[in-house]
Amino acid sequence: MTVTVRSFAKINLGLRIGAARADGFHELLTVYQTIALHDVIRVSVGRGRGIEIHCAEPRVPRDESNTCYRIVEKTMQALRAKGRVVIEIEKRLPVQGGLGGASANAVAALLGLERVLKKTLPAPERLRVAAEVGSDLPLFLVGGTVLGVGRGEQVYPQEDLPAIACVVVTPELGISTSKAFAEWDRRMKLTVPEASARMVELGRAVFAWLGEIYTGAPRHTVEPRRGRAGNPLLELVRTGIENDFERVVFPEYPELREGKSALERTGAKYASLSGSGSTLYGLFASRAAAQKAAARLRKEGWVAQATATLTRRQYWKRVFD
Ligand code: C5P
Fold first, then answer.
1. Catalytic machinery residues
2. Ligand 1 contact, 25 CB (< 6 A)
């Protein structure tokens, strides 16, 4: 049996880098949001042992450095399962693009493997295994709008906010996240209290936003309130949140700053780098506006796609066919 899983991407709505920790990671505060762009992962288990990774994209590793390999190895052990696991990755998302592609692939491999084996890990163990493989895997076990703290691996589901149209610009450029963090330390030279104060600032903005949108009503999806700012995600970005990685990535790759300006020029209500890049995204007032902007950006030579954010409900509905 082969199970097919959609491996959706994420964007970051604001990201603050805090102090470097003794374990080599940085404290982080971000709001993750899943979007409809995705890779496709196929999982099957046959006789024998070991893990095989297939992918037509040459930049994707096939060995144990692949996130899918690592999570499958851990999951097989935890489930005490036997067999040869074959993972096929149909790559559509950019590699090292800041959309969490490799992390989403690993979580999709885990979900597919569980389904093939008809066995599941207890939820806390799933989160633990995901966090061991990488900081931005656990968010894909939640989906929708997710607050990320710690090194980004501690995830808190937020209210399921209505989808919003967006445009994703993917420059042909891979950026190493660990190098971007190192560059942040080199450039900023923040003391621990300074770094903490900056985190607290974003924390306050996000908390104030939550206070505004939280209705307390037992609704599944927060309705956009007419007559006000509209979509709650736009209210969040209006608080002035930013992605710290722009400060280290834009000086090194000026074309990315241009990409952000191009998104703003074509009508984005908010534009930002996602993660450590190189992907840029813009949030738009309507699907039509996003499609028009994407067409215009393509004419200007950018690789641009119109898409939309995915609510938690949509995310889980579409993960499996
Ligand atoms: O967790 P992940 O494997 O995605 O992290 C890749 C690298 O990025 C880490 O080895 C670390 O150097 C850096 N990182 C960090 N702080 C974080 C997340 C990642 O310094 N919060």
1. 10, 136
2. yes
**Domain extent for 171:** 165-312
Q: Tell me which range, 188-192, 211-215, 265-269, is most confidently predicted by mean pLDDT.
A: 265-269
Residues 187 and 288 in one domain: yes
Q: To test the ligand 1 pocket, which listed residue (68, 70, 135) has its Cβ within 8 A of the most ligand atoms?
A: 135
Confirm or reject: Cβ of 28 under 6 Å from ligand 1.
yes
Q: Which residues of 191-222 are buried (b: 16+ CB within 10 A; e: fewer)?
A: eeeebeebbeebeebbeebeeebeeeeeeeeb
> Is residue 318 domain-resident?
no
Of 141, 160, 179, which residue sits at a domain end? 160
Q: What distance in angstroms lies between residue 294's CA and the mean position of ligand 1's atoms?
A: 31
> pLDDT tens across 120-137, in order?
999 999 999 999 999 999
Q: Position of tokens 């990488």?
A: 134
How confident is the model over 83-142, as pLDDT tens digits?
999 999 999 998 888 999 999 999 999 999 999 999 999 999 999 999 999 999 999 999
Residue to probe by mutation, ligand 1, list 149, 177, 183, most atoms within 8 Å of CB: 177
Measured from the CA of 134, which atom of ligand 1 is nearest? 1
Q: Which amino acid is at 102?
A: A
Number of domains in the chain: 2
Which residues have C-beta within 8 Å of that of residue 226, sequence separation ≥ 6? Answer: none
**pTM assigned to the model:** 0.94
